[in-house]
Design goal:
147 residues, alpha+beta, 5 helices
């Protein structure tokens, strides 16, 4: 348990660590938001949002994921690039779980085209200005079983 002075020093160390982590997280979050605003959003030709009646319903979330996959594949065949912009969704969920003022949640709600729908996944779409790197793939024989 330690002496009172050890416990006090430990509390001070923990407080310093918490302050450092908060400032570090704040800088990281700010950098991510700046990148989203100044790079991703600034260069997008258009935006979209996948929505659902109930964003917490697992079946609706899976179906939205299936739609995204089909949409992404189709866009690729058309020479388009799409990219999820899930930062807003993540921030809105953090506000709810942390009991914070729902600034991002309000902004996210405004993206829904219909008040009976809830945004699941905002994204950007447009013609790419650079060639995307190929995704790493394993050889087919490593993932396909005969028989």
């Amino acid at each position: 348990m330690g002496s009172p002075s050890t416990r006090l020093a430990s509390r001070r160390s923990c407080a310093r660590l918490r302050r450092w982590l908060r400032s570090r997280a704040s800088r990281t979050i700010r950098a991510g938001l700046d990148n989203t605003r100044n790079v991703q959003v600034a260069t997008a030709a258009a935006f979209g949002t996948l929505v659902a009646r109930d964003k917490h319903d697992l079946v609706q979330r899976v179906n939205a994921g299936r739609i995204w996959q089909r949409m992404h594949l189709w866009a690729t065949t058309q020479g388009l690039a799409v990219q999820p912009l899930n930062q807003v969704v993540e921030r809105a969920e953090r506000e709810v779980s942390g009991g914070f003022v729902p600034e991002f949640a309000r902004a996210l709600t405004a993206l829904a085209p219909d008040p009976d729908r809830e945004p699941l996944m905002p994204f950007r779409i447009g013609y790419p200005t650079a060639e995307a790197l190929a995704s790493p793939r394993r050889p087919a024989e490593e993932v396909i079983e005969a028989g």
